[in-house]
Amino acid sequence: MTEAIALTEPEAGNRTRTYEVKTYGCQMNVHDSERLSGLLDDAGYVRADAGDQADIVVFNTCAVRENADNRLYGNLGRLAQVKEQRPDLQIAVGGCMAQKDRDTIVKRAPWVDVVFGTHNMGSLPALLDRARHNKEAQVEILESLDVFPSTLPTTRESTHSGWVSISVGCNNTCTFCIVPALRGKEKDRRPGDILAEVEALAADGITEVTLLGQNVNSYGVEFRDRGAFAKLLRAVGAVEGIERVRFTSPHPAAFSDDVIAAMAETPAVMPQLHMPLQSGSDRILKAMRRSYRTSRFLNILDKVRDAIPHAAITTDIIVGFPGETEEDFQATMDVVSRARFSQAFTFQYSIRPGTPAATMDNQVPKEVVQERFERLVALQDEIAWDENRKLIGTDVNVLVTKTGDAEHGRMTGRAEDNRLVHVRIDPAAQDVRPGDVVSTTVTEAKPYFLIADAAYTIRRTRSGDAWDRSQADSCGATAGPAAGPAGPTSLGMPTIRTRS
Ligand code: SF4
User: Fold this and answer.
1) Where is composition skewed (Low complexity) in this entry (predicted)?
2) Which of 70, 155, 339, 433 matches a 20 to 30 Å C-alpha distance to 197?
């Protein structure tokens, strides 16, 4: 437990101390970093300007990616030199690497001030205080969740799109994955708390939400409702003001027909599915301890496409899992050919210490993995390009995420099926704000994005208005009533702020 101490003011001399949060890894970590920023804002710190050396540097780490520890210790080494010049600099390490390596971090990098785990992000401000006060490193790692992270203050990075956690942890035991060891068993958030957060986001002008969990479609396992995820999709889709609902990631083993029906029948649920395949070989799926087989995976895709013909389906694939033969790899190539993914995130298997696969004795040589990886990427690029070319001449509604500039001449956003679209800016047209929606026609296709150089119409949205308010706020002008921070934190109703 965090020891109670008199809190010191987060000040350095006469000025407020600044912070920077550096994020590695998945969307879960990106959203966790929004919470870390919210906590630090709430504690009175301010975010450092880009390029300035912050007084507090927080690393939100990932243990999944290759060389995660080399990268972390490399970054910490660079900061050691800064700390020699500026002894009041505080360095905190959180996230999955911290959960995994805990005491090792302060042994290898004794200039680190705070180490905190994935279950106790809320302790960060208190640990920084305590480290300053006691003049010694504070390491606090909990083995299970302290408080559901979504109850913590959150400083959102976007005025149009928001992540919403529905569960944390995972009950599966995939042999390549460190997540269950670091994030624990699945904990589901109550539906009422999730809806309250979505409503609060909508009230702030957010029009797109992505429901987040390691395994979203097993949502409800904790309170024994097998239909909970489908019900949740319908309920979130019915929240006034929410126009786009997405989710990531579902597990093929738990993917049920009621979820497909909810996707097809809820207009706000977007025609898109990201579902990890990992391997197209049933033998390798078994070794990975993934409990579905490729026939089931392809069957789900058929059902989704029957119900939602224009759905874009994306996936994750690991190449070179221990024991993968050329025949196994060919099975993956076959499934990829049949599945016609609009995009695949392909990874070369590499040993992750602490996972069961790390000690399997039939590791595939690096050069073999590399060669297979290149063949897979070439095949998938060809398919994605082919699928994208089919969209030339079709109409798209693009939620603008970057308004671009005269130099590049294009703004960028996401179609309803989540494809990236670059839209030519018409200098004579009204200005478009991030969060507005432009309707246009696809004129060109590339493997990873679409181009729309046609005329467009603009729909000004509440998200665009929220962007205007955030700009007015950052200029110190008076903003409308909905622009200020939301009320105090309460269960499921985080304090929401957005950054411009
Ligand atoms: S489903 Fe498998 S890969 Fe996904 S978080 Fe759980 S254990 Fe990891």
Assistant:
1) 476-489
2) 433
**Distance (Å, whole) CA 403 – CA 89:** 36
pLDDT classification of 141: cutoffs 50, 70, 90: confident
Answer yes or no: is 174 a known binding residue: yes
Q: Distance from the CA of 169 to the center of ligand 1, in angstroms?
A: 9
> Could you identify the atom of ligand 1 that is nearest to the CA of residue 249?
4
Q: What is the pLDDT of residues 197-231, one digit of tens each?
A: 999 999 999 999 999 999 999 999 989 999 999 99
Hey, what domains does the chain have and what are their CATH numbers? 18-140 (3.40.50.12160), 149-388 (3.80.30.20), 394-473 (2.40.50.140)
Ligand 1 lining (C-beta closer than 6 Å): 170, 172, 174, 177, 179-180, 214-215, 251
475 labelled as ligand-binding? no
Per-residue pLDDT tens digits for 160-198: 999 999 998 899 999 999 888 888 889 999 999 999 999
Q: Which of 27, 173, 176, 177 to mutate to test the pocket of ligand 1 (most atoms within 8 A of CB)?
A: 177
Three-class secondary structure of residue 388 per DSSP: helix
State the distance from the centre of ligand 1 to the C-alpha of 318, rounded, in angstroms: 13
Q: Give SS3 for 382.
A: helix
Cα-to-centroid distance, 441 and ligand 1 (Å) = 38
Nearest to 201 by CA among 150, 160, 234, 169: 160
> What is the pTM for the complete model shown?
0.82
Tokens standing for residue 336: 């990829």
Cis-peptide into 249, omega within 30 deg: yes
The pLDDT tens digits for 356-379 are: 999 999 999 999 999 999 999 999
pLDDT of 14: 63
